[in-house]
Amino acid sequence: MKTLVNRRDFLKVSTLAGGGLMLSFHANSLNALLEEETQVFQPNAFLAISPDGTITLMAPNPEVGQGVKTSLPMLVAEELDADWSMVQVEQAGLDTKNYQRQVAGGSGSVRSSWESFRKAGAAARQMLTEAAAKKWNVPVSECFTDKGFVIHKPTGRTLNYGALATDASKLDLPKEVKLKDPRDYRLIGRRIVNVDAQKIVTGKMAYGIDTRREGMLTAMVARPVFGKKLKAVDDSRARQIKGVKQVIVFDNKVAVLATSTWAAKKGRDALRIEWEDDGKPESTTDYNTALAQLIQKTTNEPKRNDGNVEEARKQADKVLESIFYAPFLPHAPLEPMNFFADVRDDRAELFGPTQTPARTRTEAARVLGLPEDKITVGMSRMGGGFGRRLQADYSVEAAQISKLAKSPVLVVWTREDDMQGGFYRPAGMYRYRASIKNNQLTGWHLIAAAANSPNASRENNFPAGALPNFRVDSHNYSTAITVGPWRAPNHNFIAFTEESFIDEIALELGKDPVAFRLELLEQAKKQPVGTVAYEPDRYINVVKKVAEMGNWGKQGEKGIFKGFGAHFSFGTYVAQVADISVENGKVKVHKVYCAVDCGRVINYSGAETQIEGGIIDGLGHMLYGEITFKNGEVEQKNFNTYRLIRLPDAPDIEVEFINTTADPQGLGEPGLPPIGAAVANAIFAATGKRIRKLPVGSLSDVKI
Amino acid sequence: MATFTLSINNRNYTVDVEPDTPLLWVLRDELNLTGTKYGCGVAQCGACTVHLNGSPVRSCTLPVSAIKGKITTIEGLSENGDHPVQQAWVELDVAQCGYCQAGQIMTAAALLARKPKPTDADIDAAMAGNICRCGTYKRIRKAIHLAVAKGGAK
Q1: Max Cα distance, chain A (Å)
Q2: What would you report as the CA-atom Rg of chain A, rounded to the nearest whole angstrom?
Q3: Domains (ranges, CATH) in chain B?
Q4: B28–A261: do the CB atoms touch at under 8 Å?
Q5: How many CB atoms lie within 10 A of CB A519?
Q6: Of A184, A201, A218, which marks where a domain is finished?
Q7: Are A398 and A405 spatial neighbours (Cβ–Cβ below 8 Å)?
Q8: CB < 8 Å to B45, chain A
Q9: A284 found inside a domain
Q10: Is residue A370 located within the same domain as residue A445?
């Protein structure tokens, strides 16, 4: 094996034997084969071409429904000039030697892989071309590639990639890799169907919860609610359940291991457990009271402080004030938490749904007392994640149980376990004050407070930069209720608050809400105050585009009201117009128009569905999503009391992508944040009622 | 434990399980038919939908001892994975994570068997019991209409 040229891209030349398709690309298994005859062409860890012409592309990143198992291999295939219909895609395991950033988070997979994946494909294509030129004894410059073939232009001779695999594998990696002119793209920018689609629709797609191994036991675990710990357990009844094999007490938890899921559940439910207080178990009124107090005062260290908001308030003709309230939200991916672990004395195998396999390995190594290189982490396709599977609690728990039980084990959570399982979108309160002088917005002051959140704001986002006096304070409220990233962390709520408040200000100033935003964006462009995260021009363009798509300012159908919302997150600009009606107190969203600048679109089908899904996800949680606590216990334990959006509530959606020649940006999350405000602003237009507490459904109960 | 003989996807299976075991866990744990998914266990999400004598049922709350009739799971919906609903789902690239889609497809196929040309209101009523956490509803609706065009009930 030779490592050449560009270490950053982990390009390697390796040669394999066996003739057949290599299904595993772990470096260790490769080494054993290196000595022998050469056949499979694997210039790097991203692709392999076997002599029979099979092209296998590796999908190194965790697939959680965001589509990277399709879009990342598309980048390789594009530059490889492969025939997509002949390509096979395979999920890689954790391999930090060969891959970078195997994470499903921060809408970052395509952004971070854009260069390196294309280079991997381009390097291979150059080598195949060189191999053909050598074979034909012609200059490389006379050869080009097309859909899995190298073609000699003057003579029209062709060779397919498979026929060149052996020769290409003997070549050195190219010193320089030349990428295609984007005008020559054949795959990037097309609508490509999810590579697992056929398996999914036939029930053949294996998710983590479908893991079945020889000798495996299934475990269910009793865990304490927030602020409680284990006092005593009587497992005598549990042990009498047929199929129950072991009961294990560890870390304030009790695991029941059985030969089937049903037996494990019955065993777990038959435990008689006494829990006791560990600190003070919290209820919703406790944290709400605390948050409401925190937002009354500023902090000593504002997150941003342009000009002087207090002075602006003193000088103001009028000060507008609004307080917004965000409830805790569970991620509730449809596949509940689960993980497989097989821990031996000297090694461990972990397999399952994880958005962060590297973190899983690091934390498992620490808990198991094993070196990281003795632990493998395999990734299953995930039944959703939304940030929940960025945590390693459930995978490490499986490793602990396997170690203690001395057995391979699949730990399965019930929906009720999942709802109580923590790492929620934090509850928070956001108090805004706007100063108005001579019918101009002169100052903007946010004091935020949120559970276990060092910064609940996005202080450099719009309208920062547009105003001379702009201050953001953020308080952290510590609680035993755990929080974590939830699809578009912070953005998912702050966009609702900012964009609702801007509408309130526009109304006060007697300005059209869209025109008012454009006026602010022009100010940020011409006389920027401080540094900002966004580019005003790109922001302006999506605002204008969606106003045009959604017929903003024009009289629509009778009974239909429009609302606007926009937000910048993960490098992407999104603006939305919602058409709604309110009948018998119920909000019906008919249509959502959405303009997106995420730069280049890799897979139009995947990109569009991410935006559509983000809108429906955001709408559902805006209308219905809330969990509350009583003494540390979640009150909404399953989907009968925790309401998720269903098909009849889903609006029609029209998406347009603009500025598609810029480098690609994030897409898994940015579609979600603007919808809350777009719908809430439309509700105001329809009813005169300003939504400040989410979900909308419980607004009438709240006094803030 | 007790012995039950079940007709699943036109094959007979005999299983030895507790009578209260839900069909879902018999399929998944005893017969290795893992295409039917667990999502809630309380018949709220529809991920576990199978057909019992052609009607959609939630297998997570159906005790094995109560089953009378023929069961069809996603694995048996069509021999070659080409039921019009399955074809439409692939063609329109409906799935994101894909976890709920076996249940969605079983519900949609049962709808079309009963009502070959459903209106949007029929689709709303039939599909309201199936949650898609990724929010693919727009494409689900479109795919059902496409399946109708492809011949619908098969």
Answers
A1: 84
A2: 28
A3: 2-76 (3.10.20.30), 84-149 (1.10.150.120)
A4: yes
A5: 16
A6: A201
A7: no
A8: 334, 639
A9: no
A10: no
Q: Please provide the average confidence, as pLDDT, over all residues in chain A.
A: 93
CB neighbourhood size of A155 (10 A):
10
β-strands A348-352, A375-379: how paired?
parallel
Evaluate if residue A16 carries a pLDDT over 90: no
Residues from chain A that touch B16, judged by Cβ atoms under 8 A, are none
Q: Nearest by CB to A332, from B21, B89, B133: name it.
A: B133
Domain span at residue A352 reads 208-279+337-412
State whether A541 and A571 are in the same domain.
yes
Residues 240-259 of A with CB under 8 A from B: 242
CA distance B140 to B146: 10
Per-residue pLDDT tens for A368-392?
A: 999 999 999 999 999 999 999 999 9
Q: What percent of chain A has pLDDT over 70?
A: 94
Q: Scanning the structure block, which residue is given the tokens 């017969």?
A: B31
Evaluate whether A563 touches A593 at the Cβ level (below 8 Å).
Answer: no
From A314, A370, A318, select the one nearest A341 (Cα to Cα). A370
Report CA torsion sign: A251, A254, A259, A260: negative
Beta carbons of A205 and B74 less than 8 Å apart: no
- Give B38 to chain A, closest Cα distance, Å: 7
Q: What is the mean pLDDT of residues A608-613?
A: 98
Whether A111 and A86 map to the same domain: the answer is yes
Nearest CA in chain A to B139: A609
Which helix (H) or strand (E) element contains residue A635?
none
Residue B44 C-alpha, separation from nearest chain A C-alpha, in angstroms: 6
Q: Which of A412, A445, A472 is the last residue of a domain?
A: A412
Residue A566's CB is within 10 A of a number of other CB atoms, namely 27
Is A262 close to B25, i.e. CB distance below 8 A?
A: yes
Q: Are A434 and A444 in contact (CB under 8 A)?
A: yes
A360 and A452 assigned to the same domain? no
For residue A287, tell me if it sits in a domain.
no
Q: How far is CA B118 from CA A388, B4, B134, in A?
A: 37, 37, 24
Q: Which residue has the higher pLDDT, A19 or A561?
A: A561
For A179, the 3-state DSSP assignment is coil
Do A686 and A619 reside in the same domain of the chain? yes
Bridge partner list, A258:
A218, A244
Number of domains chain A contains: 3
**Who among B1, B40, B42 is closest to A242 (CB)?**
B1
Element holding A51 (H helix, E strand): none
Cβ-defined contact of B34 to A203 (cutoff 8 Å): yes
- For position A565, which CATH number holds? 3.30.365.10
* Domain match, A641 and A618 both: yes
